[in-house]
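Checklist before submission:
- one chain only
- standard amino acids only
- sequence pasted in full

Submission:
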Amino acid sequence: MQRAVQNYLRHVTVERGLSTNTIAAYRRDLALYTQWLAGEGVDDPSGVTGNHVGAFVQHLGTREEEPLQASSIARVLSSVRGWHRFLLEEGHTETDVAHETKPPKLGSRLPKAITIEQVEALLDATRGDEIQQLRDRALLELLYATGARVSEAVDLNVDDVIDQDVVRLLGKGGKQRIVPVGSFARAALDAYLVRARPVLSRRGTATPALFLGLRGQRVSRQNAWLIIRAAAARAGLDIEVSPHTLRHSFATHLLAGGADVRVVQELLGHSSVATTQIYTLVTADTLRDMYTSAHPRAR
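Returned file contents:
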């Protein structure tokens, strides 16, 4: 069973070029699945049936210890279905036993953006001339200016900041895209690169990483989360703010300002415009609320 899982993970790593984070998620999902199968007495892929897959999905949502929400169950099932499809294609099984298993229905969830005023308060909470403040402001300004995923931001190297006003991001599946950097983010990056990064770099081993921790190492995704959470607390924001909140806000504010959805799709690195169009629903809801509160005949 474990050999079959490792073969699949090797396949998606080499053939599909998936990111390290995606592969790690696949590994966790399939470990959860194979452990459950072992508890059911199944120790070989050929012994798995469609009933097993269906029972596993039900187990995820009803187990006593931390039952999963529908979105998490759908993600795990996606990993399971990919593995069984691979087993069939490679001739390890005669049927795709997971093909008929459907994920639970997901509720319609709109991206959670914050207002421009809240973004400004968040960024203002990082003002200062200390090394850590210069770094934190550069990171947050860049996230909001580019709509980068947190993994894309922390994976940046110094050489990825090119031509003064653009940055090269490496997205899902190893796809590169060039995204403009506004004047505020550019100024924050310049201040960090000149006054803070050289100091941080001397504290650790040589690294091309753009954003460095206090010991001179590359900032991790977890550190980026903590940086944003701390800034939100200092700004007095009583809402949950994450790196993805800035990505959502980037897209929402662009569309509200009149940007074309296809342009926003390219900036975000979405493979399908349908993913980007979710943000148009957010702006439409905002317009509807404004109309309802302002028009004398709306209520």
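Reviewer check: The chain has a mean pLDDT of 86.
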